[in-house]
Write a structure and sequence with these properties.
Blueprint: E1 19-21, E2 36-40, E3 50-52, E4 58-60, E5 71-75, H1 78-88, E6 109-111, H2 116-122, H3 132-135, H4 142-164, H5 169-194, H6 204-220, H7 227-257, H8 275-306, H9 313-347, H10 360-392, E7 401-402, H11 404-413, E8 423-425, H12 434-446, H13 456-470, H14 477-492, H15 504-514, H16 519-528, H17 534-545, H18 552-559, H19 564-579
Parallel strand pairs: 5-6
Antiparallel strand pairs: 1-4, 2-5, 3-4, 7-8
Keywords: Coiled coil
Coiled coil: 279-326
């Protein structure tokens, strides 16, 4: 608990690593948010690392690690509690808050308004003022101990959450199958919309993918029914029917949009098969016919003038009659062409080839139902695997031991020696390549990311350190060769890198080196490369990034599922092996 509390003027209550504790609650209204008090048992204070002044204020110079049976979270009203929890739920920093909601049948939250005595104290005026001399005292090494504890805690949570949330090969294949099914549905929808005609071949791949995913589901869930896949097949059959009807309707629309071919060969054109080109051709013919009318009119005027001077009245009358008839015929044809152009414009040229039909809504609805059903099956499947893992997994943390004092000194002195050993013991059942695992964990802890963004140079330095520590160890020859190959690739990137077929430990370490910043990117990489025993990569990620940086979704298998037995085991291990020795 550090750098978190403020006064009602938003001034920090902690100065130079000194936390001020008050003997009783007082009136407190922050400028933003809602007031929260932490009631801490005196027995949880670090031995001899605090001072109690005459007015009862306690000045603490070490971090107070809040264990859920040694503190209460006091909130003014039940409404405030609901709002605070709602705001805090997506936050990485308070991802552990669910463990305070219920513990051994009771919540760690206390509602001040429900306790008359406590409520009166809460509304009392603030009467204490911190002593500046006591505030200026400090603990030099405490921030470095906190950092070391954060990295060790991250290592253990990487192992625990990676194991509890871990999946076997059939479970991994099923998750990939659901994702591939979603992708094939999207691709099939696109192909069907762009296709000019219907063919059952459009849905062959989708039908095969549904069958393949059903088979994967059976392999991973031997006792679960596959009725939802039957529903998917039903939706697919409906989809085929409506898509065929839509195609027939579009074909009818295209036929109606194409102007009929005139008997006069003068107006025949293969371009009329294209609605847009047909409209342009009709407009061009209309312009030509208007020019013909103007030419005939001019000729009639000339004939009229000629009739005054030439005695050929019968011939002129016959020519005038022929031209008038031709003009009437052309005007009639112009009127027909205008009607066709207006028809094309009315129907909408942009919708001729990919028009709307009465079946489009049905098709969209079926795709939505199929997508929702696949997403629901995938979600339920993950929850089922997670519940099974929580029930079946028994993790013993006792074999894991780290030298937190030595790691603190390394951070404090900003100096790392080649032979520094932080990992003192671990369970070889989870990490068979014992020596290599120790080398990698030690290197990651000593080069931990902390709050800074990682760059390529730092990753290359970690890789070089691991290789240097492996030199001369004959049992690591194959692993050393694989890391040298990776080092050559990262130095030049002159060739395409192929993940080596080495032990799971080396493959997981390489995966971490490629994706050291983002847990989500690391997870995708592990699945895409078919790497087994993911808990190894998550352990590396936790050692390097620390517990505070872990995504809330990664730790949810512990904190959001009410696994009190496991939470107790973790808290006890961390407290007695690392926090108790620092008191």
């Amino acid at each position: 608990m550090r750098n978190t509390l403020t006064t009602d003027q938003e001034l920090p209550l902690q100065f130079d690593n000194c936390l001020v504790l008050y003997p009783q609650p007082f009136r407190f209204r922050p400028l933003k948010g809602r007031p929260v008090f932490l009631a801490i048992l005196k027995t949880s204070l670090p031995d001899s690392k605090y001072v109690v002044s005459k007015d009862g204020l306690t000045y603490c110079y070490r971090t107070i690690y809040l264990r859920r049976d040694q503190c209460f979270i006091c909130i003014a009203t039940e409404e405030d509690k609901k709002l605070i929890l709602a705001d805090a739920s997506p936050s990485i920093e308070v991802k552990t808050i669910p463990k305070y909601l219920l513990f051994k049948g009771s919540s760690s939250f206390r509602i001040i308004a429900d306790d008359r005595k406590f409520d009166l104290m809460f509304h009392s005026p603030q009467i204490h003022y911190p002593d500046r001399l006591l505030l200026n005292k400090r603990s030099e090494s405490q921030p470095y101990f906190d950092r070391a504890f954060n990295q060790i805690k991250g290592t253990l949570y990487g192992l625990i959450c990676g194991t509890i949330g871990g999946r076997n090969d059939s479970e991994i294949e099923l998750e990939k199958g659901f994702q591939e099914l979603q992708n094939v549905m999207t691709a099939t929808k696109g192909k069907a919309e762009l296709s000019e005609g219907f063919t059952p071949d459009l849905f062959i791949e989708l039908r095969a993918k549904i069958k393949g995913t059903r088979d994967r589901f059976k392999a991973a869930n031997k006792k679960e029914k596959t009725s939802k896949f039957d529903l998917l097949d039903h939706y697919l059959n409906e989809l085929v029917t409506y898509t065929e009807r839509r195609s027939q309707e579009l074909a009818r629309q295209r036929t109606a949009m194409i102007p009929a071919v005139e008997e006069d060969t003068e107006y025949r054109s293969p371009l009329l098969s294209d609605a847009m080109s047909g409209k342009e051709l009709l407009e061009r013919h209309l312009s030509e016919l208007n020019a013909d009318i103007q030419r005939i009119t001019d000729e009639l005027k000339d004939l009229g003038r000629s009739a005054k001077y030439k005695d050929r009245r019968s011939l002129l009358k016959e020519q005038r009659s022929d031209l008038n008839d031709r003009g009437k015929e052309l005007k009639k044809h112009i009127s027909a062409l205008k009607s066709r152009i207006n028809s094309l414009q009315y129907r909408g040229l942009n919708r001729t080839l990919n028009g709307r039909t009465n079946f489009d809504g049905n098709i969209e609805d079926i795709y939505y139902k199929m997508g929702t059903l696949v997403t629901e099956m995938n979600f339920n499947n993950k929850a089922r695997f997670l519940g099974k893992k929580r029930k079946d997994t028994e993790l013993d943390l006792e074999p894991y031991l780290f030298d937190i004092k030595h790691l603190t000194r390394c951070y404090y002195n900003d100096k790392v020696e080649t032979d520094d050993q932080i990992l003192l013991a671990h369970d070889q059942a989870h990490f068979p390549d014992s020596e290599l695992f120790r080398i990698i964990i030690d290197t990651l802890l000593l080069n931990a990311k902390g709050q800074q963004d990682i760059n390529e140079g730092q990753i290359n330095s970690i890789l070089s350190d691991v290789i240097r520590k492996m030199n001369g160890k004959n049992e690591l020859t194959d692993s050393l060769k694989a890391l040298h190959q990776l080092q050559d690739y990262r130095a030049t990137k002159a060739f395409e890198y192929v993940l080596p077929d080495n032990t799971p430990l080396i493959r997981n370490f390489i995966a971490f080196l490629f994706k050291p910043n983002s847990m989500e990117e690391l997870q995708r990489y592990l699945f895409n490369k078919n790497i087994e025993q993911h808990h190894i990569a998550y352990t590396f990620w936790g050692a390097f990034n620390g517990f505070a940086a872990m995504p809330k979704t990664f730790t949810d298998p512990i904190f959001n599922k009410g696994n009190e037995k496991l939470m107790d085991a973790i808290d006890q291990h961390l407290f007695f092996h690392y926090l108790a020795i620092a008191q």
